[in-house]
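User: Please predict structures.

Assistant: First:
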Amino acid sequence: MSAINQDETAAFRAAFLANDKQRALQRAVWKNGIKASAENEAAVVENTPLFSLDLATGKVANQKKSGRCWMFAALNTVRHQMTTNFQLKDFELSQNYTYFWDKYEKANYFYDNIIATAQEPVTSRKVAFLLATPQQDGGQWDMVVSLFKKYGMVPKTAMPETASSENSSELNATLNQLLRKQAITLRHLVANQASADDIDQHRQAFLQDVYNVLAMSLGLPPEHFDFEFRDTEGNFVHEKAMTPQAFFEKYGRMDFDDYVSIINAPTADKPFMQTYTVDMLGNVVDGKPVKYLNLPMSELKELALKQLQAGESVWFGCDVGQSSIRDKGIMAANAYDLNALFDVDFDMTKAQRLAYGESMMTHAMVLTGADLVDQVPTKWKVENSWGDKVGADGFFVMSDAWMDQYTYQIVVRKDLLSTQQQAALATEPKVLGPWDPMGALANN
């Protein structure tokens, strides 16, 4: 261990005071903050919101103060196809409906993992991981697919937002407190060799408690509803007493089995052209397992562009907080010049950021366009779910260089994959630890 030497600190102070450039920059940072002082005007000029390939998608949605970005992005990809197929205008699917079932299923998924690890000490890495966040708003593509397949979907008019869906901090704190309390009982039952029936009776009673909390906070999910709309040509449609599953089958029209997750994780422990899954990552116990195919970034971008050129938007996951100018809606690798501001080298490779905890997937959005120069993308159009007050009416611009560094996952039709990529996709996935950065949940 090396203690700080007071003489060294005095020398550092003297060096700072002797540097006129640093003193001038100090005044800028003191008054404006770090990012405002480091913002690079070139990033704004280079990333104007104009695109040669631009899909029509309608208005952006707003997840408000919740971490449901992955869910909004998935529902938006379905909505894009629905608005085209049925000539809908300003239409949204109910995010609250899917949110209810996600919370409900995550509780049951937590019970299963708590029971499976009940003979490990509370201090074990897996149990500590489970108890740190029993459930949260975040998720992954395969998790939302499991919800769609089991529960269908409904229009937003059938189950609108509530105070707790739009501002989820209280609901999450309440549920996590309840789940941790229930975990004490479940672990105690296993330790005392309770029968499987006894454990299951407790699990059902606990799930009833969770259901009650959700019903009071989010409302009861509809079993039947009427669906009315007038299309862009003026035709009025009225569907009576539809079930969520019937609505999904008639209006969703996406075969989710045709879509696969492609990741770019250039770390030494994850060779390309290999598939991966993550231990204890999911929501629906019998749902679709999470599975990724790891590819080089050039191949990931090529697949994303193919799907856009086919007229279909692309769900993707990234680290949105990195080098992002939120109010202007610009994600650019050169958005801020911290190196010049502080005269310190902050640069890391993508692999280093993943391996050392500096970056991971934190947010999911939708690619809806790209600007091509000689058929090569220079920037990408992004549909966010933060409302229309940021960016260009809610749409962001992502530079191609930013995509290289901070995009980790896309979802594309598997028929777009090459023969070699499809063969790699068919291989048995390697299981990653629950804490692996590829197990991060999009929740911004």
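Second:
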Amino acid sequence: MGENRTRVIDLSVPMDVNAKEPFPPSIEYMAHEEGAAQAAGILGLKKEDFPDSKAWAVETLTLTTHTGTHVDAPWHYADKTAGERSRTIDELPIDWFYGDGVLFDFSDKPTGYELGVADFEEKLTSMSYELKPYDIVLVRTDADKKFYDEDYAFSHAGVSAEATRWLIDKGIKVMGIDAWGWDIPLPLQAQQYRENPQDGILWAAHYVGKEAEYCQIEKLANLDQLPKNHGFKVAAFPVNIKGGSAGWARPVAIID
């Protein structure tokens, strides 16, 4: 039997109450002793009836569908896409979420930098690659390294509406970023809007979803561990939540 040379890289952040995302999870931990008491109450037994008076451990989480690493569905951006009702996470084709990965390394860009079409085209030229429909695009900013810093949600480069539209036009259905959001940080959007109140500033890249269907993976991690920009697979299956605007996911890169 030959050696298995497949490498799997975890591209998710953990569900952690200590994370500095704006809406972290609340996690209640039930230990094995408490599990025995709970099981005994359900079954009409005593907790001492279980070996060592211990049974199951259980965690209860309170969180949003956008807490932790997750996939945004078109319904998140607007109630209609191209004039039709936007689809929720459970309505999307599952095969969208497994495909060839393409990494765009923008870790050199400063906080608040808005990535444009030219930035993506330049990277494609440097990697001698042409995007094809259903590639899964990964945008590296290294914001995941600040997951436990107070300014985590506001310290990343973001993607412009024009670049988002350009990716969709290339046939990309799933695109992701290792930051709290796909757009530039919200406070910067708000500042720009106050200085020049007009459409096309607030949540601009997200709102491209009003025109065409696409999904974002937000809060990716470990993109710096990918050894190449393409030539690997990505699996990013979202949890099947009925009517959900998003689904939690544990994306991985699969490299032979």
